[in-house]
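dumping the sequnces here before i forget
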Amino acid sequence: MAEWEPRIIVIACHWCTYQGADLAGSLRYSYPPSIHIVRVPCSGRVEPEFITEAIKSGADGVFVGGCHFGDCHYRSGNYNTIKRFNLLKRALVDLGLEDERVKLEWISGSEGKKFAEEMTVFDAKIRELGPNPIKGGANV
Amino acid sequence: MSKPKLAYYLAGGCGGCDIAVVDLSETLVDVALAVDIVFWAPTVADAKYKDLEAMPDGSIDVGLITGNVRNSEHDHIVKVMRKKCKVLIAYGICATSGGIKSLVNLYTTEQLLDKAYVDTMSTDNPDKVIPQTSCIVDSKYDLTLPALFDAKPLDQVVSVDYYIGGCPPHYDHVKTAFTALLTGQLPPPGSWITSGKALCEVCGRNPVLTGKPKKFTTTIKRTFEGTPTEGACLLEEGYLCLGPITQGDCGVKCPNANMPCRGCGGPIPGVKDFGTRAISAIASMLEKEELVDEIPDPVHLFYRYTLAGSALGKKLNR
Ligand code: SF4
Ligand code: SF4
Ligand code: SF4
Ligand code: FES
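..and the predicted 3d for all of it:
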C-alpha cells in the first residue's frame, strides 16, 4: 500500500491569511504539499459545517486562518469566528476527534513567513496524529 | 375512487409518535374513515410482516415510518416498506435524524450491552449472559434476535419522500400533515412538512416581534438555575434555547413552559446538520468568547435529537 500522505484543508480569509500565503509564495518560503487552500471572503464566513464536512470527506486536518483582531475587513467577522470555532471544537473533541486536528490562527497579509511556519508545524502535527479516524475506519 | 392505502411501521422508536396519531382524537376518526390501514405494526393493527411482504410492490399509497434504524429487523422491514409504498414519510425526529435514541452512537454496541446486562448495580447476572443473535433452547428450539448496529436516520437506508419533525410531532402539526397528504397538497418530494418558520418567529418571547432588538447572551444558565423572567427571551437570559434554528411547528411548547427548546422539531429549511448549525447560532449569540467554555456538555445539548444524522454521526474512537 502506498505511504499515507495527509490532506490538509486550509480555509483562508481573502484579506489576510490568503495574502499571507501569496506572500510566502513570492518570498519563496516553502510549505508542505499536503496543504490545500480554500479562499473565503472573511473567516466569519466559515460555518462550522464547512469544518465538519471537510472532516467527513476525509480531510486529515482543518486549519482556519483569519485577520488579527481589529483587522477584520468586515469589523467583527473574526470575533464571531473564534466563538463558533471554539464551541465546535469542544463538541468535536467530545465526539472523539483529536484536539489538534482542527486549528484556528490569525495570520495577516504581511506574515508570509508566519504562514509558512504555521503550515509546516500543522503538517508535522497531523503526520504525528496519523490519518483522519473516519477515513482510517478506526472503530467504525 | 377507492380509499388511499396507508401503512405504518414503528422501527427504533418509543411509540410516542404513534400516540401523537392517536392524540388526533376526532380527527383520527375522520382519517381512519378516509384511509384504508393495511399495515400498522407493532402497535395498532394485528399485522404480520409476511402479510406486508406479500403485498404487491407499489400497492400502498402512503407509508409512515417512525423510529430510527437500529437493528437488522428494522433494516429489513423499512426496505420492504420502501418497495410497497408509493410515498414514504420519515415521521418524527428519530426517523428523520436519529432522534434522542441515536445518542447510543456515543458508545459501541458491546459497551451498551455490557452496561445494560452486566455492569449496573441492580443487575444480578453472575454468568454475564447477554443477548445473542441466535441460541438453541432445550437443545431443539433455534431462537434468533435481530443484530444491533449504530442508529441511523431512515434516509441512510432507503430514499425518503417527506420528513416530519418532532419528538413526537405535535398533534396539530400531525393534523396539518395528514390533511396535506389526503388532499394531495404536498411540497416537492424530499421536503420537510413544516410551516417553514423557525420557532423564534412564532414565539411570544421574541423581542424582535415587538420591535425590540435581540440582545446578546451574557451569562450561561442551566435550566434548574433561577426562574426565567415572564415574557423574556430565554436565550437572552442565558438559557440556551435552540429556537433560532428549530422548526416552529410544535406550538412553542417548551418556551411557553419556561423551558428552552432542545430542537426536537428538526432543522429549519436549508439546514442539513442541525447540531453543527445550532453550535453556530448559539455561539454567535454569546456576548464574549469566554462564555463558550461555560456551556456544559455541548454534544448532548446541540446533537440531542440529531447525532446519527450529523456529519460525524457517532463518537469516534469509542
Ligand atoms: S421521535 Fe420521540 S416520540 Fe417519536 S419515536 Fe422517537 S423518541 Fe419516540
Ligand atoms: S430563543 Fe427561544 S425563547 Fe427566545 S425567542 Fe427564540 S424560541 Fe423564544
Ligand atoms: S420547543 Fe423545541 S424541544 Fe420543545 S417541543 Fe417544540 S421543537 Fe421540541
Ligand atoms: S476579513 Fe479577514 S477575518 Fe474578516
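Chain A has a mean pLDDT of 94.
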